[in-house]
Design brief:
Helix content: 40-55%
Order of helices and strands: HHHHHHEEHHEE
Keywords: Coiled coil
Distance between the termini: 103 Å
Largest sheet: 2 strands, antiparallel
Protein name: MADF domain-containing protein
InterPro entries: MADF-dom (IPR006578)
Organism: Araneus ventricosus
Number of helices: 8
Oligomer: single chain
Length: 264
């Protein structure tokens, strides 16, 4: 009975693209998603009487995580088959075929629906399922519940997991992170990964001299620092006004504080 309910649970999930299809016009529509969640809660309560929306989301995360793991094994196995002729890996997950409808959603950037009540950025970035990091602990919790229970399939799964631990997964995929640096491109209403900023240009002569002045100021006592800053500010002001020349000098009058003078 439990497997039948989970199968129907997946079929309901598939029939509600607002929960998984990022290019759906209803993907960010909370009202439609709430109706879909209520359907899934009702189905899950057939085996878990206290099920709620949060439990539905955890179930979806667990199912998707297990499916992604099997899908990566298949893709890696196909690549090895092309290079070495090794047999292609056969998934042991009993609902693997049922989840093929999300295969093209794993790396597709979401589109923001700016109609209706506005943009639900938080919902778009992971309210329903978090694709930014693996839910390993959740996957472990439900493995026995959703995996095939025959001894042969368990042995095959263990062997494949051991093989996967010895080889890196798809090299073209970045490591999973809990947060992503995203930027919004309004021309086509999409979120994209923000590229790394370009390297800073090398410092010019003025910047180097400024650092030199700063290092010298740090060697002075507080009073000398204040006087130096005052004189430097006066020189900079006169320079901006075009009042500096080769005859400009520093006057140190004993009765007055030092000033910058221009001698004709």
């Amino acid at each position: 009975m439990e497997r039948r309910v989970i199968q129907e649970f997946i079929e309901i999930y598939r029939s509600e693209p607002s929960l998984w299809k990022v290019r759906s016009s209803h993907y960010n529509n909370k009202a439609i998603k709430n109706v879909a969640y209520r359907r899934m809660v009702a189905k899950l309560r057939e085996i878990y009487p206290n099920a709620d929306v949060e439990m539905v989301k955890r179930k979806i995360n667990a199912l998707r995580t297990n499916y992604r793991k099997e899908l990566r094994k298949v893709e890696k196995s196909k690549e090895m088959n092309r290079r070495t002729g090794e047999p292609v890996y056969v998934p042991s997950l009993w609902y693997f075929e049922l989840f093929h409808f999300i295969a093209d959603q794993e790396s597709e950037p979401p589109i923001i629906d700016v109609t209706g009540d506005g943009v639900d950025v938080q919902g778009m970035l992971g309210v329903d399922f978090d694709e930014n990091y693996e839910r390993d602990e959740m996957s472990d919790e439900f493995d026995e519940e959703f995996q095939a229970s025959s001894p042969d399939s368990q042995k095959t799964s263990s062997q494949n997991m051991l093989q996967m631990s010895c080889f890196p997964q798809n090299n073209h995929q970045p490591p999973f992170k809990k947060h992503r640096n995203l930027s919004y491109k309004s021309s086509d209403d999409q979120w994209y990964m923000k590229s790394e900023p370009p390297p800073s240009p090398p410092p010019d002569g003025q910047e180097v001299f400024g650092r030199y002045v700063a290092s010298k100021l740090r060697e002075m006592d507080k009073a000398s620092q204040m006087l130096s800053e005052r004189l430097i500010a006066e020189v900079l002001f006169r320079g901006q006004m075009g009042l500096l020349s080769r005859n400009t000098c520093l006057s140190d009058d004993q009765q007055q504080p030092p000033t910058v003078k221009v001698e004709d």
